[in-house]
Design brief:
2 domains, 10 helices, four-stranded antiparallel β-sheet, six-stranded antiparallel β-sheet, Jelly Rolls, transcription, alpha+beta, Arc Repressor Mutant, subunit A, 10 strands, elongated, transcription regulation, 284 residues, DNA-binding transcription factor activity
């Protein structure tokens, strides 16, 4: 399977045209006999259960599964005998068109295979249901601005899909997931970060994330964030003449008194004492 980065590189070169989109509910024991696919399409399963057979391989068709079909594929689709099957579908055309070294390169879909084929599992299924619902609504309307909105929404769909794949990959590679949140804290330490949001970013439970972070980094996530903030505060105390309240706010603390308590707990000195010792000037 291609990595999210490789998929993104290929999708960035493609220009899409939506041919058809819709929503369908099939009754139990519904069967679409074996056929050769003629158009590029995707199917998002939202309810029920079934089985899709692609090139002789059986795949579960259930909520959270996204299927990509390409011309030439041999496909049979059916719902379970005792369950209906509900899905959104989108049929599309594309061409590969991009600029390279000041020259435009153009290739047909026959010359440029689509980077996604077969079944994929989604982590954030409700997000993709929303996109498909909106595309279906827009498909029933006409107008140039509406057509542009459909194109933009499809691009958002691809971007969300790549993010979903990346999160899943990180969840499988816990060290990379931990390092990603570490980098995020370095860049966003001023923001009101929570343990829950960081764990969600890593694709892990809060308890599992906390244990792994301390194992890999040597600090708990909150201790690491606190030390980042205090290191930046020490720089500001020594190199600037900002008021203590401003310094507290610039490193993520709305309450300057709470900031002062945390600073003394981590550094061993109050902010004023630290500034006096290292700069010689009082903090206002």
């Amino acid at each position: 399977m291609l990595t999210p980065g490789q998929i993104a590189a290929q999708l960035n070169k493609l220009v899409f045209s939506i041919v058809l989109t819709g929503h369908r509910k099939c009754e139990p024991a519904w069967v679409q006999p074996l056929r050769t696919i003629r158009h590029h399409s995707l199917w998002l399963i939202v309810k029920g259960k079934g089985t899709f057979t692609i090139g002789g391989t059986h795949y579960p068709a259930e909520p959270g599964k996204l299927f990509f079909f390409a011309p030439g594929m041999l496909v049979e689709r059916r719902s379970d005998p005792d369950q209906s099957l509900e899905y959104y579908f989108l049929r599309f055309h594309y061409t590969e068109t991009y600029e390279e070294k000041e020259q435009w390169i153009c290739r047909s879909s026959a010359e440029s295979p689509f980077p996604l084929q077969g079944m994929y599992s989604l982590q954030n299924t409700p997000q993709f249901i929303y996109y498909m619902e909106q595309l279906f609504v827009l498909w029933q309307r006409r107008g140039h601005m509406t057509a542009m909105r459909r194109k933009l929404l499809l691009q958002e769909f691809w971007l969300a899909l790549l993010h979903d794949f990346r999160v899943q990959k990180m969840a499988g590679d816990t060290t990379a997931a931990i390092e990603l949140t570490q980098d995020y804290m370095v860049q966003h330490y001023k923001e009101p970060l929570t343990l829950e949001s960081l764990a969600q970013m890593a694709g892990l439970s809060v308890s599992h994330y906390s244990r792994l972070f301390k194992k890999v980094i040597g600090y708990s996530p909150i201790d690491y964030l606190t030390h980042l903030r205090m290191d930046r505060a020490k720089e500001l105390l020594v190199l600037s003449d900002y008021r203590l309240k401003s310094i507290a706010q610039s490193v993520g603390y709305g309450d300057e008194f709470y900031f002062s308590r945390m600073f003394k707990k981590v550094v061993g000195l109050s902010p004023r004492e630290y500034a006096k010792r290292n700069r010689g000037d009082p903090v206002k």
